[in-house]
Structure formats: C-alpha cells, structure tokens
Write a structure and sequence with these properties.
With about 200 residues, the chain is mainly α. It has helices at about 10-25, 30-40, 40-45, 50-75, 80-100, 100-105, 110, 120-140, 150-170, 180-195. The termini are far apart.
C-alpha cells in the first residue's frame, strides 16, 4: 500500500478519477476502484470523500472553476457583446473537448438530481451561468440584442451550447472530424444561436 502526505491523497484521487472517466467516456467508477488504482485502502479514500457523489462534486467544482477562468480570460479579450457571446461560447465548447473527464462530471445526473449540494459547487456553477447572463444584459441594454427575458435567453443559449458540446464529445457529428471542420462547425453553431438573440 502506498502512503500519501496529508491532502495529497485527495488531489491524487480526483486526478485518477478524472483519468478513469476520460478513458471510459462515462462517469462509471467506485471509490474502491479509485483506491485500488492508487494502491491505497478504500478506507483511506473514504476519509476524504463520503461517497462517489461527494468525490464527483469535487471534480465538478474543479471543472466549473476552470471554466469560469476560461470565460474570464476569453471574454476580457472581446469588446462588444456579440464578440463576448462568441468568445464565451467557443471557450465553453473548447473546455468540454479538452477536459472531458471534468465536463462529464459537471453535468452528471447524480449531481444534478441531488436534493442537497455542496455550497461550493452551487456557487461556482451559478458564477459560470452569471457570465452569460451579464453578456446578454449588456447586449440588451446597448441595443445589440433584442429585448427579451434574460434568464430564458441564457437558458436557451446555454442548452444549445451544451447539447452541441456533448454530441461533439461523443463523436455524434460524422462531418466534424478534423480540427478545421470542428472549428468551422463551432463557428456556424454559435452563429445560429446568436441569430436568435440579435435585434
């Protein structure tokens, strides 16, 4: 059995679980499986995570924090609401493609259907959604986007980007294989979503 310094096992367990999810292409693991992969006792892992859902929530939180950082970096480079909307949409899709282990965890039904959630995950998830809300509010205020209910618009756009991301991640678009095809597909998809909100 391996030994880890305090806190190192928690980090190692998160990293190993992300690797397993990416390899399997789905959120399918047990804490015993993680412990075995790390060559530690399952009780050692349980000292850091109460359950599979608890571990999953930490991965999701890590993912949302990285997504918010990506949003912040890309949106800061844009000037207009239209550019910001395009930048955030592309950042979202590219995050999903580059971080499938985290992305699949962030929206997994075991977390979304939970009656209670860790406040840290709720807060960072809301922060990610707020980025889109603020872009739409700015666009509506400046007359670039048509007047509409911002929350409903944000939900629709987020859903459109999420659906495209997960289908692309699962290889469901046969015509989008090369990097150039994927980039063109992303641009065209974001363009269609933008048309729904343009004035």
């Amino acid at each position: 059995m391996k030994t880890y310094h305090h806190g190192d096992l928690k980090i190692a367990a998160i990293k190993k679980t992300v690797e397993i999810i990416q390899k399997k292409g789905e959120v399918d693991f047990t804490l015993r499986e993680i412990a075995k992969s790390l060559k530690v006792s399952h009780t050692a892992v349980y000292r850091h995570f109460q359950s599979k859902q608890d571990l999953l929530s930490h991965i999701a939180e890590e993912g949302f924090r990285a997504l918010v950082q990506s949003f912040t970096e890309e949106v800061s480079k844009a000037r207009t609401p239209r550019q910001k909307l395009q930048a955030s949409g592309r950042a979202y899709i590219e995050f999903a493609l580059k971080n499938p282990g985290h992305y699949r965890s962030m929206f997994h039904h075991e977390l979304r259907c939970a009656t209670e959630q860790r406040p840290e995950l709720d807060q960072i998830g809301a922060q990610a959604f707020q980025v889109l809300m603020e872009i739409l509010q700015e666009g509506i205020k400046t007359g670039v986007f048509r007047k509409t209910d911002t929350l409903n618009a944000a939900r629709s756009i987020w859903s459109g980007i999420h659906g495209f991301s997960i289908l692309l991640l699962d290889g469901q678009f046969a015509s989008l294989q090369s990097k150039a095809e994927i980039n063109k597909g992303i641009d065209e998809h974001l363009g269609f979503l933008e048309k729904a909100i343009l004035k």
